[in-house]
Amino acid sequence: MRLPHLVTQLRDVRPANPEEYISTWTEKDVLDGRVVDAWVIIFRTRGCYWARKSGCSMCGYVNDVAVEVAPHELATQLGKVLAVHKDQPFVKVYTSGNFFDDQEVVPEIRRQILKELGDRCDKVMVETLSHLVRREPLEEGLRYADKFEIALGLESANDIVLRHAVNKFWGLREHIRAADLAHEVGATVKSYLLLKPPFLTEREAIEDTVETAHAVDPYSDTISINPMNVQRNTVVDHLWTRAEYRPPWLWSVAEVLRRCRDVKAHVKSHPTAGGMRRGAHNCGACDRSFVSAIEDVSLGLGDRLDDLACTCEAEWRDLLELEGLMQTSADVGALVRG
């Protein structure tokens, strides 16, 4: 079965209330060189149009969106989420899709969201696919927010990795066009990179992420290294349950960050499910110290990456060699343990 068909076959969309947003929480991030509280909002929408048509191999967000959400229902979600704002100066807006897709977030509601959030926060960030970036919504964002940022999921600068591992067809060329347009109107750009898509060995994943970070550096204000986390009902989940995939080691995350010290953009990583089986993890004994060090360097609170140590480093280094010799991206450790 070809990858695009497998992606849709594994999907399990659950019924949902179109007037209820998916989630909101507060996390730490950097604004104007200071560590601040960032308010994260995930609105429920009809979801990413690409996910509805085919979708990415690792993305399970489509399982949580509503089949259809009318504009007035999205406005109701906005009213509910505004009631829980606690003066966070930075807000990140997600829709499990594309904020600039007029079919997902109609222009009238998009402007309402930007205005309401811009009135409350110093900086507003939204997420969208690069080929959907247009001048008008960028200018709208800057009209309503003092600082406006677009987050673009590039994942990899390698077209082969994008097409045959991620199942995505918009790469560095589209990313550069979107980033140039954003900078032209005065917005900033966050580039999301995916560490260890399926079918890549650990070493290949490290090299791909490091090369992509350097390729996208001239067009990015922030580069976010996103280690794979295994989301349910995805191709990655399908492989993981069969010991044919392992999320990246935290050693690999640290290695990528070390090798990106020369990158001019702000490089960060906040591993989702870090230290857990479905997220980036090591042996278990050292995971907490690794996640803490990665968070600190991401927030500009000090670089302790070179001080990290654990006996599992030898296993990680052996794995880097063994996967290459075996020519496999399967979870070699799980297979050896039986």
Give structural notes:
- The chain has an eight-stranded mixed sheet with strand order 1-2-3-4-5-6-7-8.
- The chain has 13 helices and eight strands.
- Helices cover 39% and strands 16% of the residues.
- With 338 residues, it is an alpha/beta fold.
- The model has no long low-confidence stretch (mean pLDDT 94).
- The protein has a single domain, classed as Aldolase class I (TIM Barrel), CATH 3.20.20.70.
- Helix 3 packs parallel to helix 4 and helix 8 runs parallel beside helix 10.
Overall tally of structural domains: 1
The structural class is alpha/beta
Assembly context of the chains: single chain
Number of helices: 13
What is the H/E string? HEEHHEHEHEHHEHEHHEHHH
Number of strands: 8
Distance between the amino and carboxyl termini = 27 Å
**How would you state the average pLDDT, rounded?**
94
CATH class: Alpha Beta
Taken from the alpha-carbon principal axes, the silhouette is globular
Q: Could you list the spans in which at least 5 consecutive residues all have pLDDT below 50?
A: none
Question: Looking at this structure, what is the CATH superfamily?
Answer: Aldolase class I
Strand residues, percent: 15-25%
**For the report, how would you describe the main beta sheet?**
8 strands, mixed
CATH topology: TIM Barrel
